[in-house]
Amino acid sequence: MTKRMLYVALDSTNQKENLKSAAELTKRVLHGNYGFKINLDSVANFSSGALSSHDMVKTILDYGKPVFVDMKMWNGGRTVESIATGCAELGVDIINMYPHAGKAFYERVLSALKGSNTKLFGLTVLTHYTDKDTQKLYGKNLRDAVRMFVEMNKEYGANGVILPGTALNDVKDINLSKLVPAVRPIWFADKKANSQEQTVAPEEAFENGANYVVCGSPIFKSPNPAEALERILTENNLS
Prior knowledge:
By secondary structure, the protein is an alpha/beta fold. Helices cover 40% and strands 16% of the residues.
C-alpha cells in the first residue's frame, strides 16, 4: 500500500521565497511524511537572476524531501519525454501530465521514466472547476468528467491520478494511486483561497482513498507555517 504523504505547495511567484519556505520548514519540522510541490513558474522562471530549472529542483531536493514537479504537461512527444528524462535523472518523486496529450505520448514519458523512482500522475479535472465548467468543456458533470479522465489515465498506464477530493468516491473502484490538491483543514476558514472550488479536509481525502494530498494556503497563510504544517501532519497521522 502506498505510504500517505503530504506535499507542501511552494506556490509563491518568487523563487527565493519558495526556497526560503522549504529551508525553514525542513529546519523546523524534522519528522513527518511530507515533501514539496514546485509550481511551473518556479521551474520555468525567466526573471533576471532566476535559477535554472535544474538548479531550482535540485536545491529543493537537497533538503531531503520528496519533490512533486507540477508541470501539467500537455506538449509534443519530444518535449514531454525530455522533461521526464531530466526529472528522472534528478530524482523527482512525481511529475504530471494531461491525458489529452494521448496514449502515445504517455508511453514515451513512461519509457523515459523506466528504471527510475519518478512516477507519472495523470491529471483529471482542475480543482477550480465546477459542473458548469466541465459541462461546457466536456459535456459532463464534474464527477463524470473526473471518472472519464481517471479511466483514460488507467488505460494509458499512469502510475496515479490527480483529482478533486470531492470526486474520490466516484473512482474508488479504480486501482490507481490518488493525489488530491487543494485540501483545507477544518480549522482553516478560507476554504476557497486561490479560487479553489473543489476542496475537502485532508482527513476526508485520506478516508476516501487518497494516497497523497497537496496543501499550501492553510500553511503559508497561518501566522506560523511550521506549526500549521506540524498540526496537519499530526491530525492525519503523518508525523
